[in-house]
Amino acid sequence: MPRNLLQDMVKKVKAPTPKPFIIKVKTSMPIKEESTRNVFSVADMGGEKGKVFNKVKRNDKKSKYRLYFVALISVVFLLFALSFLFSGAKITVTPKVKEIPLNENLSAIKDSSVPGLSFDLAVISGEENKTIQGGEEKNVSVAATGTVLIYNSYSSSPQVLDINTRLEGSNEKIYKTVKKITVPGMTGDKPGSVEVGIYGAETGEEYNSAPLDFKIFGFKGTPKYSKFYARSKGEITGGLKGKSSSASSLDKISVISELKATLETKLLKKITDQIPSGFVLFKDAIFLNIDDQNVSFTPDENGTILVNIKGTLYGFLFDEKKLTTKIAKDIIDKYDGNEVYIPNIRDLIFSLSDKESVSFADIKNINFSLAGTPKIIWKVDETKLISDVLNKKKTDFNQILAQYPSIDTAQLVLRPFWKKSFPDKSSNVQVIVNYPK
């Protein structure tokens, strides 16, 4: 039977259209933009091109937004946690400072146990010598000199000894004291003692001696004779009688001045090295005591002269804290009693009243003046300030500072910045005090 070509063509046209073949990729990971290129449809090659692609693209955008949101929440939570981990308070304080001219007359007693201002006396002795060329030979007559400690083991009452008090040496020679002294009384079982210079009752080499023991000649035949005694400090030297080279008056003045300056520098260094912490020694509160009897000129057979001086340096030491408080009370109007310090206190000018008539060896009290411009700085109690701000509101800070007259200004930084109150632990509060240098 002949084939109907028209029917064959209709059958071909009505043949069923094949369904799109879609490959979907399932994954728990977010779909990246690049992965959309791997999602395709056979129908894209046909009539429904782009429909499946657009649907997958919309789903991809939603997943990306959800990822950003989760990341943002995580960052906020992390910052919030770190802010609590590193939370705290920092208080930077500037203390109150005043500079006030000072010109005050003061007094002090040599007894740190009594109320008021007191002082300690630093005492150190030494000697210095130098050989110079002698001049023409002359008849000379020089007494031997030395230093002794006189003891009082008789009673607790002091004993006055006049100038030129005779001391009988263990070499059976008589020596005399160079000045009037007072020998302190006993303290308990401890004898009182005082240092004084001596010289031979006669001139000549026979009075030169190694260290000696002495009795007070005037007490012979009384109970005091055995209870008052003396011992020399070092040798007794310088005694001379006969012809010898001599130095001119100008040479003597020059060499003595040089030796005094050298001895004072040496003794001052020794005292300074021994000053206990917390004490002040003003540069004008030191005095070198050299009696004429402690200056000797000893010629030799070679025509040279040995010049020797012996002296004692006295220094007045003051408790820095007590002196600072005294100065503050005297010159600050309505001083509040808070602890202060004076960094330039050692630059003040010290002047001792009636220093020419002072007997340093047995001094008990002094009158003096201080002048200058001390810088008075208030101290801040950092521990108390930290304790006062714990758990307090930020708005209470100014009220707390009002209780600290020692503070001039203060800056507060709270971490994190949104905090409205202080931490509850002292370890989280830092106080920095900017004390002037």
How would you characterize this protein structure?
By secondary structure, this protein is of the alpha+beta class. Among the domains are: 5-82, no CATH class; 86-96 and 378-433, no CATH class; 139-244, no CATH class. It contains seven helices and 22 strands. It has helices at 5-13, 51-85, 224-227, 249-274, 320-331, 382-389, 397-401, and strands at 88-95, 97-99, 102-109, 119-133, 137-152, 159-161, 166-169, 174-177, 181-183, 192-203, 213-216, 228-232, 240-245, 279-289, 295-299, 304-319, 340-341, 349-352, 365-372, 375-378, 407-415, 429-433. The strands form six sheets. It has a six-stranded antiparallel beta barrel. Strands 4, 14, 15 and 16 form a four-stranded antiparallel sheet that branches. A hairpin with a 4-residue loop joins strand 15 and strand 16. The radius of gyration is 49 Å and the shape is elongated. Mean pLDDT is 83; it is low at 1-15 and 19-47.
Largest sheet: 6 strands, antiparallel, barrel
> What is the strand tally?
22
Structural class: alpha+beta
- Binned strand content: 35-45%
Strand order of the largest sheet: 5-10-8-7-11-12
Shape: elongated
- Poorly predicted sequence stretches spanning 5 or more consecutive residues: 1-15, 19-47
Radius of gyration: 49 Å
Helix share of residues? 10-25%
Average residue pLDDT = 83
Number of helices: 7
Distance between the termini: 126 Å
Instruction: Report the order of strands and helices.
Output: HHEEEEEEEEEEEHEEHEEEHEEEEHHEE
